[in-house]
Specification:
Strand content: 25-35%
Shape: globular
Helix content: 25-40%
Strand order of the largest sheet: 3-2-1-4-5-9-8
Largest sheet: 7 strands, mixed
Number of domains: 1
CATH superfamily: Vaccinia Virus protein VP39
Radius of gyration: 15 Å
């Protein structure tokens, strides 16, 4: 059973994440993706970023956790949602952009490489990836969750040749420069 398959763990996460959303990241995303574009949000969790993305884009929310999807669907019965594993990404749909906010750091480095390859497959020509990560050079486990930190260099090594880096910028979420986001364009 995955960490987020537990109603108790999901409720704890929602309390922990209260007050945080990706509005600043999404403002940067808007510089690279046209309004009305089809966006897949990987790891939507409680759906805060999904709500913000839906103000400008045609967004599909996704998560591997049925608990998160069911909770969101209770409040938004017409929401476009998919249950997707961020590594395998089993969908036949195509998107102009794939977005995640501090989600892919739960994958091992090898899983992240596989995820980037699969994201390339479901991204439209010249599509954009926009992902944020914790900055650092360590791996740790906390309450049953894996956290893999990246430097700009280790992330570049993981991305592969399928994408051109348009922007890679550090920012502070909890501490100064503790995070960064990357904007990638499909080659």
């Amino acid at each position: 059973m995955s960490f987020f398959d537990s109603h108790e763990n999901v409720a704890d996460y929602i309390r922990l994440a209260d007050g945080y959303d990706g509005r600043v990241l999404i403002e940067n995303l808007k510089k690279h993706v046209a309004p009305g574009s089809r966006i897949l949000e990987l790891g939507m969790g409680p759906g805060k970023d999904l709500d913000i993305l839906n103000e400008t884009f045609k967004t599909t929310g996704s998560d591997s956790s049925k608990v998160f999807l069911d909770l969101y669907r209770e409040q938004h019965p017409d929401a476009d949602l998919l249950q997707i594993d961020a590594v395998k990404m089993t969908t036949t749909r195509s998107f102009d952009c794939i977005y995640s906010n501090k989600v892919l750091h739960h994958l091992t480095r090898d899983e992240l490489k596989q995820s980037f390859a699969r994201q390339s497959d479901i991204l439209s020509d010249n599509g954009i990836l926009f992902h944020s990560f914790w900055f650092g050079d360590k791996e740790e486990e906390h309450v049953g969750l894996r956290f893999v930190y990246y430097t700009k260099g280790t992330l570049v090594e993981t991305i592969g040749d399928s994408f051109e880096i348009l922007k890679l910028e550090q920012y502070g979420e909890m501490d100064d420069d503790d995070s960064f986001y990357v904007v990638l364009k499909k080659n």
